[in-house]
Amino acid sequence: MYRSISPRQFATTTEIPRENLEKVHFNEFKHLLNDKNVVVIDVREPEELKELGTLPKSINIPLGEVEEALKLSNECFLQKYGQNKPQKATPIIFSCMRGRRSETAQIKALQLEYKNVKNYVGGWEEWAEKNKKE
């Protein structure tokens, strides 16, 4: 089952089956926040963060910037995002509002050969709901 792809697509696209994508749910996400090695990348737009709030320990890299951000040198990444660039083996958890954009970011990171990337499928929506102050 071969399909025709252009050389440009071959260089930048790797098919990642959805069933191979690692997911994180609320309790695991909450636990992983205590791990100083874990990097949380929130791919929502800055306006969403201002309006709704931010996840603990997260770096905001909007989805449209993820691929280029992960290609930056450490120095440029540090200058732009105020944190060291994650290494290829660094545990990264992507998050967004409900898990769809973060899945896209996860796929982009895997295509760039990042090895330990997960998607917080509940996203901000679940986080805010489960952390409401009563």
Q: Could you list some keywords that capture this structure?
A:
single chain, 134 residues, alpha/beta, Oxidized Rhodanese, domain 1, five-stranded parallel beta sheet, 5 strands, disordered N terminus
Written account of the structure:
The structure is a single chain. This protein has 134 residues and is of the alpha/beta class. It has one domain: Rhodanese-like domain (Oxidized Rhodanese, domain 1, 3-Layer(aba) Sandwich), CATH 3.40.250. 43% of the residues lie in helices and 13% in strands. The protein is built from 7 helices and 5 strands, in the order H-E-H-E-H-E-H-H-E-H-E-H. It has a 5-stranded parallel β-sheet. Helix 4 runs parallel beside helix 6. The longest helix is centred in the C-terminal third of the chain and has 12 residues. The termini are far apart. The relative contact order is 0.20. InterPro entries: Rhodanese-like_dom, Rhodanese-like_dom_sf.
According to CATH, the homologous superfamily is: Rhodanese-like domain
Q: Name the poorly predicted regions.
A: 1-12
Percent of residues in helices comes to 40-55%
β-sheet strand percentage: 5-15%
The end-to-end distance, rounded to whole angstroms, is 55 Å
The CATH architecture would be: 3-Layer(aba) Sandwich
Number of helices, counting only DSSP H or I runs of 4 residues or more: 7
Subunit organisation of the chains: single chain
* Estimated structural class: alpha/beta
Q: Into how many domains do the coordinates divide? A: 1
State the strand order across the main sheet.
1-5-4-2-3
What is the average per-residue confidence, as pLDDT, rounded to a whole number?
A: 90
Number of beta strands: 5
Largest β sheet strand count, sense and barrel closure: 5 strands, parallel
